[in-house]
């Protein structure tokens, strides 16, 4: 998987916008105001940077922030050049869509706002190009050294570590597939689709006709879900929305999303009864204590049970994911005493034995009872809209009702580590740079 950590870098980039290389209005605009290693920064660039920061409502000494941003931007581009990092047009378009989406605008509207504020719209492309180039440089330098272990993913997903605490959001979703090289084009199409939506009924229609998430059958509706269970770029896009508003297109790994906010809640701590409990239950007849002890000694995870129990009659080993409120009796009480990976034995009244193992305890799913996932059925003839457009088939597991997948959490962890390394590297580049002023 190729992690997308452009968003944190772009977010930080309010103070580090890229070089604005628009045509000068007069010869004085080419006046050099500082030099970063072998790269000059002109007065025009400084003026444009200050205007950009003003337009964004950036606080503090804007001239000092503009200078610092231009210096850091030059260092980023120089580092990317040394590593022969190139930037594709699709990466630029996807970055433009993502950054503009933080203001709930598409790229065209964001460029128009920039122009109205006196900033050359072409500068926005340069800014995104610098961010993408820096992402590529960081990946080239560090990607092979950064990973997320299964233990880190387990902790990040566990409600025991606070996953699911805090604010919750009631969403509707539209997820449109975007293959590598299509992000810019699909983002533009999603923006046009958004322009046709005027209210929840329109959004539901658009979801049924365009989304590949299973939620489309319910008009894209997702029940209450912790805000922390959404990818960072989705959190950023919806955090600025009010109830009833629709996000700008949000690029994600393999998809572009549109989101309708139907409600917000302050949330709080996870309610124990709502926690999703993933557990394994191996049942053996009375008198099987020795066999149970053998299996118990051989396993350290729920997946190990499948190997250890090989050869037993079908149905003796079962794995369940249920809300805690759905698990009653001695089973629920026994599971409450376990941490992930731990196991215990309970004996039924007839003497039969159950080896219970807790696989995970999470609050990643949307609110409501958990029901078994149903297989996706693809009809022999594709469904079509009234005008004959083929409606895409739903993709199993896509959508935010089930919460983040392990791959998504792995991406979050890797992105966070890369962002930390990028910050340290930029400080080193700054420390080694030769910066002069005329």
Give a description of the structure.
With 438 residues, the protein is an alpha+beta fold. The protein has 3 domains: 6-145 and 415-436, Porin chaperone SurA, peptide-binding domain (Triger factor/SurA peptide-binding fold); 152-270 and 368-374 and 391-404, Chitinase A, domain 3, CATH 3.10.50.40; 273-362, Chitinase A, domain 3, CATH 3.10.50. The protein has 14 helices and 11 strands. The strands form 3 sheets. It has a 4-stranded antiparallel beta sheet. It has a 4-stranded antiparallel beta sheet with strand order 8-7-10-9. Helix 4 (89-101) crosses helix 6.
CATH superfamily annotation of the largest domain: Porin chaperone SurA, peptide-binding domain
Write out the strand line-up for the largest beta sheet, numbering strands in chain order: 4-3-6-5
Q: Count helical runs.
A: 14
The span between the termini is 47 Å
Summed over residues and divided by their number, the pLDDT gives a mean of 83
Strand-pairing-aware structural class: alpha+beta
Overall number of structural domains: 3
Largest sheet: 4 strands, antiparallel
- Please identify, by name, the CATH architecture of the largest domain: Orthogonal Bundle
CATH topological fold name of the largest domain: Triger factor/SurA peptide-binding fold
Order of helices and strands: HEEHHHHHHEHHEHEEEHHEHEEHE
Shape: globular
- Supply the CATH class of the largest domain: Mainly Alpha
Helix content: 40-55%
What are the low-pLDDT stretches, counting only 5+ consecutive residues below 50? 1-27, 373-379
């Amino acid at each position: 998987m190729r992690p997308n950590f452009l968003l944190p870098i772009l977010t930080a980039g309010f103070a580090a916008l890229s070089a604005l290389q628009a045509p000068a209005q007069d010869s004085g605009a080419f006046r050099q105001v500082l030099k970063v290693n072998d790269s000059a920064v002109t007065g025009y660039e400084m003026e444009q940077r200050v205007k950009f920061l003003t337009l964004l409502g950036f606080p503090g000494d804007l001239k000092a922030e503009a200078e610092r941003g231009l210096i850091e931007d030059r260092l980023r581009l120089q580092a990317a050049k040394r590593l022969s990092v190139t930037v594709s047009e699709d990466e630029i378009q996807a970055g433009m869509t993502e950054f503009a989406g933080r203001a709930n605008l598409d790229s065209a509207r964001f460029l128009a706002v920039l122009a109205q504020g006196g900033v050359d719209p072409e500068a926005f492309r340069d800014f995104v190009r610098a961010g993408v180039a820096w992402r590529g440089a960081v990946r080239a330098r560090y990607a092979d050294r950064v990973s997320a272990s299964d233990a880190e993913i387990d902790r990040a997903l566990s409600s025991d570590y606070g996953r699911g605490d805090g604010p919750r959001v009631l969403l509707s979703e539209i997820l449109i597939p975007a293959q590598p090289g299509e992000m810019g084009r699909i983002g533009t199409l999603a923006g046009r689709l958004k322009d046709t939506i005027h209210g929840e009924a329109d959004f539901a229609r658009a979801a049924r006709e365009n989304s590949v998430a299973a939620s489309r059958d319910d008009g894209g509706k997702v029940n209450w879900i912790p805000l922390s269970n959404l990818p960072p770029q989705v959190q950023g896009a919806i955090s600025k929305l009010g109830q009833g508003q629709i996000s700008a297109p949000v690029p994600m790994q393999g998809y572009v999303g549109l989101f309708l906010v139907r409600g917000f809640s302050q949330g709080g701590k996870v309610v124990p009864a709502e926690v999703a409990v993933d557990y394994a239950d191996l049942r053996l007849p009375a008198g099987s204590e020795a066999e149970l002890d053998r299996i118990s000694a051989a396993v350290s995870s729920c997946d190990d049970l499948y190997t250890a129990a090989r050869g037993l009659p079908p149905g003796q080993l079962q794995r369940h994911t249920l809300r805690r409120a759905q698990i009653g009796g001695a089973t629920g009480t026994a599971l409450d005493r376990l941490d992930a990976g731990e196991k215990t034995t309970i004996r039924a009244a007839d003497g039969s034995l159950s080896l219970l193992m807790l696989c995970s305890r999470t609050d990643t799913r949307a609110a409501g009872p958990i029901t078994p996932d149903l297989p996706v059925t693809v009809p022999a003839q594709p469904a079509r809209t009234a005008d004959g457009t083929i409606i895409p088939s739903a993709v199993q597991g896509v959508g935010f009702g089930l919460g983040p997948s392990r791959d998504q959490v792995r991406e979050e962890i890797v992105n966070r580590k890369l962002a930390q390394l990028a910050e340290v590297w930029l400080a080193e580049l700054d420390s080694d740079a030769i910066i002069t002023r005329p």
